[in-house]
């Protein structure tokens, strides 16, 4: 049932070009420059006119929510807040009928996320869900929602669910941008086209497996890892660090790159691998300074960058490149080498990849 792969996680990493395509099928209509999200069509007006959108989730789904915040704010100019579902509840949250809550959950059973759904509903907000498991509790208790259609995810560490969640959020952001008239036709056409090309680009990244493996072999016994990213690649840094912690038990931290000099820089020495997410975008000059700062302290820079980003490739000890895409979509590509890296490191460390210690696939206690 693992389709010839040694672990479900590896199978699920490999499936992503297909699962992203499945997630977009019938929804991303390239020839009409249109997004069709049937699951929320009855409530789209209320969503479009909402005062703000509150996204609540846990773990990897929360990271997808953070990417969604960049996407929706940028394309739809809508105010978005992202909350840990658990923390949302403890704060006697300020949420009203004018707000929309969007929860994200692969399993649809996460207790804290479910509690956030109930809290928001009791305050009169419209509550939408992005779930993978059809008919799950969260899918049933939300007012409307969009399934990710990633298929069953068995490995405890979430991979294909994450890329599908980001895909749904990107489609929502485009739809909202069009409906709120914040996105002109040319720009929406360019991002819709870029989305349609993502599955092939993900497949291309899978051909870099051996390159990532060589890095994994070298750093499999590092005690710590630092992940740095800016803007929409900041959540990817968090996600990369979480994946490594979960399955290889290596201590890893993800940081917004600019925060490095406010503390974590003290950790950098010749034993510290620093994974730097550096697409060739508006943050590039700043990421290059970060790379230079790490190098000056003899840190080991592993850059995840785009094919065209020669400067970063030249400055970094190691680099894995991903194809170029629309800037806002880079998280869908940069996360893939990080999934492979954590997987291969866990294999070298002989960890139980699909069922890491202390973790469960769905966390149904609060
Ligand atoms: C990460 C992971 C967890 C889940 C979190 C939320 O690999 O598996 O962090 O993402 O427990 O789960 P869902 O999305 O099912 O609500």
Based on helices, strands and strand pairing, what is the structural class? alpha/beta
What is the beta-strand fraction? 15-25%
Uncertain ranges: none
Widest sheet: strand ordering: 4-3-5-6-7
- Portion of residues in helices? 40-55%
Task: Looking at this protein, list some descriptive labels.
binds fructose -6-phosphate; Glutamine--fructose-6-phosphate aminotransferase [isomerizing]; 15 helices; 12 strands; globular; alpha/beta; single chain; EC 2.6.1.16; five-stranded parallel β-sheet; 17% strand; glutamine-fructose-6-phosphate transaminase (isomerizing) activity; transferase; 366 residues
Q: What topology emerges from the helices and strands here?
A:
Elements: H1 8-14, H2 16-24, E1 28-29, E2 34-35, H3 44-48, E3 52-57, H4 59-76, E4 80-84, H5 85-90, E5 99-105, H6 111-122, E6 126-131, H7 137-141, E7 144-147, H8 160-179, H9 185-196, H10 198-206, H11 209-219, E8 224-229, H12 234-248, E9 251-256, E10 273-278, H13 284-296, E11 300-306, H14 310-315, E12 318-322, H15 330-348
Parallel strand pairs: 3-4, 3-5, 5-6, 6-7, 8-9, 8-10, 10-11, 11-12
Antiparallel strand pairs: 1-2
Helix pairs in contact: 2-8, 2-10, 4-8, 4-12, 8-9, 10-15, 11-15, 12-15
Residues 58-61, 105-107, 110, 113, 156-158, 242, 246, 362-363 line the site of fructose -6-phosphate.
């Amino acid at each position: 049932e693992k389709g010839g792969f040694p672990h479900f996680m590896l199978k699920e990493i490999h499936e992503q070009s297909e699962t992203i395509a499945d997630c977009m099928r019938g929804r991303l209509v390239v020839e009409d420059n249109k997004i069709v999200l049937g699951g929320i069509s009855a409530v789209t007006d209320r969503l479009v006119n909402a005062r703000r959108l509150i996204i609540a989730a846990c773990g990897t789904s929360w990271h997808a929510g953070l990417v969604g915040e960049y996407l929706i704010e940028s394309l739809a100019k809508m105010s978005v807040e992202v909350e840990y579902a658990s923390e949302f509840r403890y704060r006697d949250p300020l949420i009203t009928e004018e707000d929309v809550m969007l929860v994200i959950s692969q399993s649809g059973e996460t207790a804290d996320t479910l509690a956030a759904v109930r809290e928001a509903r009791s305050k009169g907000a419209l509550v939408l869900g992005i779930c993978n498991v059809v008919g799950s509790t969260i899918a049933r208790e939300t007012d409307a929602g969009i399934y990710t259609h990633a298929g069953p995810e068995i490995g405890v560490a979430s991979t294909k669910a994450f890329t599908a969640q980001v895909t749904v959020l990107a489609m929502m952001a485009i739809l909202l941008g069009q409906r709120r008239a914040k996105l002109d036709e040319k720009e929406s056409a360019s991002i819709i086209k870029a989305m349609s090309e993502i599955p092939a680009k993900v497949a291309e990244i899978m051909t870099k497996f051996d390159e990532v493996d060589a890095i994994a072999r070298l750093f499999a016994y590092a005690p710590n890892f630092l992940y740095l990213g800016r803007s929409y690649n900041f959540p990817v840094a968090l996600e990369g660090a979480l994946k490594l912690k979960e399955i290889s038990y290596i201590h890893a931290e993800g940081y917004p790159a600019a925060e490095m000099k406010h503390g974590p820089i003290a950790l950098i020495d010749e034993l510290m691998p620093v994974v730097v997410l550096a697409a060739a975008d508006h943050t590039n000059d700043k990421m290059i300074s970060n790379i230079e700062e790490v190098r000056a302290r003899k840190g080991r820079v592993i850059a995840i960058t785009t094919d065209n980003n020669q400067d970063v490739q030249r400055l970094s000890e190691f680099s894995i490149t991903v194809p170029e895409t629309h800037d806002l979509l880079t998280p869908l590509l940069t996360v893939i080498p990080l999934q492979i890296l954590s997987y291969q490191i866990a294999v070298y460390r002989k960890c139980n990849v699909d069922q890491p210690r202390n973790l469960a696939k769905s966390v149904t206690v609060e």
